[in-house]
Amino acid sequence: MAMRSQALTRRHQAKHTDGGAAAAEEDVEKDLFDDDEEDGSKYGRLTLMEEVLLLGIKDREGYTSFWNDCISSGLRGCMLIELGLRHRVELENTGMRKRSLSSRKVVPMPKAEQPTGDVILDEALKHIRTTEPGELVQDWIELLSGETWNPLKLKYQLRNVRERIAKNLVEKGVLTTEKQNFLLFDMTTHPVADAPIKERVVKKVQDTVLSKWQHDPNRIDKRSLALIYMAHASDVLENAFAPLTDDDYELAMKRVRDLLEVDPDVEAQKPQANGILWSVVAAFLR
């Protein structure tokens, strides 16, 4: 965990003055994936979408629950947060006027012209960059999911997202690919190939609400905080808590409930808060 601690220290020490903003942003993006890279492995470089999907995939069966109808929109929320953490998008500036998170549109940042290195993120980012006027966070979650009655906006839907994210994890060696027969049809599945990587994601979730718990949400590492919220929104958070003892489980769930009771509009006003993250959280808590 040494590299993770060093990465977080660098983030907290980064200067946020106008003169040092660009350098600070560069340092933050450099450290975005340091959370799990104790061995310098590429496996530590998991996106928020990949972490959430990994929590939802059954280790041996290689697929998410057929009854989970939340993960689709949850993964779209992950995309927006990931773009926000990578300084590609932000909420529009309202100047002196105070407006709620739900009424502020998503706008591209100067770095939006730079590719993220992830095809799905770049596809979502292209939609945001080329849409005038912009859309609200809630609207983007629905549009990227294909949940719209407007046929002119169906072009924004990102298709086969779960399968594409799973294939990314296959390329990283975290999952593998198999064919399973389900009586009437064959289905491609992706069982876990590298159990320690999933265990590290699970431990990251557990540690966030147990050994590394902070009463102020904005003092929690942003990626870890986002993982808790989006795992809950995607209905896969319980999977990470299943191995806990009864006492730890009760404590973890109590702290998750505490996080779910905060006011995103208030939290977004605090220093170092990420507006996109809290706007996505607000969209799922409403």
Give a verbal description of the structure.
49% of the residues lie in helices and 6% in strands. It has 13 helices and 4 strands. It has helices spanning 2-13, 21-31, 48-56, 71-85, 119-129, 137-145, 161-171, 195-209, 222-233, 237-241, 246-260, 264-267, 275-285; strands spanning 89-91, 106-108, 178-182, 185-189. The strands form 2 sheets. Strands 1-2 form a two-stranded antiparallel sheet. Helix 3 (48-56) crosses helix 9 (222-233), helix 4 (71-85) packs across helix 5 and helix 9 packs parallel to helix 13 (275-285). Residues 1-40 have low confidence and may be disordered.
Which secondary structure elements does this structure contain, and how are they paired or packed?
Elements: H1 2-13, H2 21-31, H3 48-56, H4 71-85, E1 89-91, E2 106-108, H5 119-129, H6 137-145, H7 161-171, E3 178-182, E4 185-189, H8 195-209, H9 222-233, H10 237-241, H11 246-260, H12 264-267, H13 275-285
Antiparallel strand pairs: 1-2, 3-4
Outline:
With 286 residues, the protein is mostly helical. It is built from 13 helices and 4 strands.
From the alpha carbons, calculate the radius of gyration and give it in angstroms: 19 Å
Helix content: 40-55%
The main sheet comes to: 2 strands, antiparallel
Proportion in β-strands:
5-15%
SSE string? HHHHEEHHHEEHHHHHH
Kindly report the spatial arrangement of strands forming the biggest sheet. Answer: 1-2
What's the overall geometry?
globular
Number of helices, counting only DSSP H or I runs of 4 residues or more: 13
Q: How many E strands?
A: 4
Instruction: Assign the structural class, choosing from mainly alpha, mainly beta, alpha/beta, alpha+beta, or little secondary structure.
Output: mainly alpha
Contiguous uncertain segments of 5+ residues: 1-40
Measured distance between first and last alpha carbons: 35 Å
Q: What integer is the average pLDDT?
A: 86
